[in-house]
Write a structure and sequence with these properties.
By secondary structure, this protein is mainly beta. The protein is flat, with a radius of gyration of 28 Å. The chain has helices at residues 2-27, 174-177, and strands at 38-40, 46-47, 52-54, 57-59, 66-69, 75-78, 81-84, 88-95, 108-115, 127-129, 135-137, 143-145, 147-149, 156-159, 165-168, 178-182, 191-198, 211-218.
């Protein structure tokens, strides 16, 4: 009789326990959140006379990106508008905290340089920067960048997205030493970069108004 009960226990209880375990497992919360990434272009130098400009960044999730400044005495942010308070260097961070569908994105921080161009005791200057090309491919090699300033001071170049196109060269020989290189990040023909020429001034000259050109870059060699 005891043996009969033991057989019933093994036959009926064990399968029942398995069913309960399966049900409990199916009721566990399944993590369905997705990762997201922020795209936030690098800054070219800005001049204090600009007053303010719009910060632009996007999250792959489509969620709104927020911005913060690490020194509001130099640059203050309200929503996506950055106000230039005084000349200096400040870090601007783009962030996206996520929601029930997306994880928080990794923050992206870029450094912004604000130059003085309104000193009445200094002379003004301008930049001449001409870019005839609107598309540049890897197969074309390096794109030489040439710009001059009326002050005779060397001009510096900045790429808005170094993953697509980087700037190489020697600041001291900017008249013939700077060139643009299309990087592996530019994998299709819809990647754009803004190349900006700037001159920060010195003890005689104010900073020059920056001159920018937009270039489509294409990584056509795989």
């Amino acid at each position: 009789m005891v043996r009969h009960i033991s057989n019933i226990t093994k036959t009926n209880i064990y399968p029942a326990l398995c069913v309960i375990a399966i049900l409990l497992t199916s009721c566990e919360k399944i993590d369905v959140k997705q990762n997201q990434k922020i795209t936030f272009d690098y800054f070219a130098p800005h001049n204090i006379s600009e007053g303010s400009f719009v910060l632009k960044a996007k999250a792959s999730s489509g969620l709104r990106v927020t911005f913060t400044s690490n020194d509001t005495a130099i640059a203050a942010i309200s929503d996506s508008i950055i106000s230039l308070v005084k000349p200096g260097v400040v870090d601007i961070t783009a962030s996206q905290k996520g929601n029930e569908t997306f994880y928080q994105a990794a923050k992206v921080t870029h450094t912004l340089t604000i130059n003085d161009d309104i000193n009445s005791n200094k002379r003004n200057q301008t930049i001449t920067f001409i870019m005839n090309d609107t598309l540049w491919k890897v197969s074309q090699g390096y794109l030489s960048l040439n710009a001059t300033s009326t002050s005779g001071l060397p001009v510096k170049f900045t790429s808005s997205n170094v993953a697509y196109a980087s700037i190489n060269g020697d600041y001291a020989s900017s008249y013939n030493g700077y060139y643009l290189v299309v990087e592996s990040g530019a994998l299709d023909n819809n990647d754009y970069v803004t190349v900006t020429a700037s001159q920060s001034g010195d003890y005689v000259y104010n900073a020059a108004p920056p001159v920018a050109h937009t270039l489509r870059v294409y990584h056509d060699v795989h």
